[in-house]
Structures are given as C-alpha cells and as structure tokens.
C-alpha cells in the first residue's frame, strides 16, 4: 500500500515527533511512504491532500497536526473546517484520509501527551479502512 503523510509545521515541537512516530508505525505495517509533505498549518492541508489523492500511486493519506488552544476560539474554527474538508476529499476520491490532528481545546502539555496515540491511530486508520474497502469493492 502506497501512502502519503502530510504534516503541519505549526506547533513543530509536537508535529515533528508525530511524524517520526507515524513513520515507525508505517514501517511496522509494511506501508510504502511515497510522499512526505510539510504544510504551514493544518488549514493548509486540504489543497495538498487533494493533489496527493489525484495520484494513481497513492492509496491513502495520513494527516498529522496539533491544534493547541489559544486565547480565542480560533482553534475550534480551524479544527471544524479542516475536519470537514478532509472528510469530503476522502469521499470524493474514495481513498482513506486519516484525521491525525489532535485538538482543539488542548494545552501544549496535552498535545505532547497525545503524540504517540494520535500518530499511531492515524496510520492504523488508513490501513484498516483500506482493508475494509478492498473487501466491499
């Protein structure tokens, strides 16, 4: 299975570690990581995901990001918009796209605590979804 990983550079102390964990998990599952893309923030992911999903050699996309709460509700807005756009792209191309984005409403400490579980689940999600899709197609 050929996959791509899209990583937000915003909150890089967290997301760079998420990226390493996701690569470990992909190796464990024997997934071929064909593309590793960095974007400024999670809001910038949909365009890159759309482009990746158009490629015939990509079966799924893993997204990795951390939306940490600030002084406003901006984190909630970003999370809602991005989640909706990502799910629409997955349906449009009939390829799994994971939501490996932690938050909103979390502190930096909580973001660090979620690095491994969120990253591993993001890779597991595309792997298991792709298996199920093959069964029903």
UniProtKB/TrEMBL annotation:
Q: Could you say which enzyme class this protein belongs to?
A: transferase
Top-level taxonomic group: Archaea
UniProt keyword Transferase present: yes
Q: Which Pfam families match?
A: DMRL_synthase
Biochemical pathway:
Cofactor biosynthesis; riboflavin biosynthesis; riboflavin from 2-hydroxy-3-oxobutyl phosphate and 5-amino-6-(D-ribitylamino)uracil: step 1/2
Catalysed transformations (reactions): (2S)-2-hydroxy-3-oxobutyl phosphate + 5-amino-6-(D-ribitylamino)uracil = 6,7-dimethyl-8-(1-D-ribityl)lumazine + phosphate + 2 H2O + H(+)
Gene3D superfamilies assigned to the protein according to its UniProt record, in alphabetical order: Lumazine/riboflavin synthase
Entry's Gene Ontology molecular function annotations: 6,7-dimethyl-8-ribityllumazine synthase activity
The entry's cellular-component GO terms read: riboflavin synthase complex
EC number, UniProt record: 2.5.1.78
For this protein, the record's InterPro entries field holds:
LS, LS/RS, LS/RS_sf
Keyword Transferase among record annotations: yes
GO biological-process terms attached to the record: riboflavin biosynthetic process
Q: Which UniProt keywords apply?
A: Riboflavin biosynthesis, Transferase
Family statement: Belongs to the DMRL synthase family.
What PANTHER family does the database record attribute to this sequence?
Answer: 6,7-DIMETHYL-8-RIBITYLLUMAZINE SYNTHASE (PTHR21058:SF0), 6,7-DIMETHYL-8-RIBITYLLUMAZINE SYNTHASE DMRL SYNTHASE LUMAZINE SYNTHASE (PTHR21058)
Extract the NCBIfam families matched here.
Answer: lumazine-synth (TIGR00114)
The protein's name: 6,7-dimethyl-8-ribityllumazine synthase
Q: Which organism is it from?
A: Marine Group I thaumarchaeote
């Amino acid at each position: 299975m050929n996959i791509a990983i899209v990583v937000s550079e915003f909150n890089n102390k967290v997301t760079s570690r998420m990226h390493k964990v996701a690569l470990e998990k992909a190796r464990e599952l024997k997934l071929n990581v064909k593309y590793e893309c960095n974007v400024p923030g999670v809001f910038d992911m949909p365009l890159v995901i759309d482009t990746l999903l158009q490629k015939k050699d990509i079966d799924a996309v893993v997204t990795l990001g951390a939306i940490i709460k600030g002084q406003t509700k901006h984190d909630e807005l970003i999370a809602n918009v991005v989640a909706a756009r990502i799910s629409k792209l997955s349906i449009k191309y009939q390829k799994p796209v994971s939501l490996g984005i932690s938050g909103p409403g979390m502190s930096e400490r909580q973001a660090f605590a979620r690095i491994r579980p969120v990253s591993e689940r993001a890779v597991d999600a595309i792997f298991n979804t792709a298996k199920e899709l093959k069964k029903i197609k």
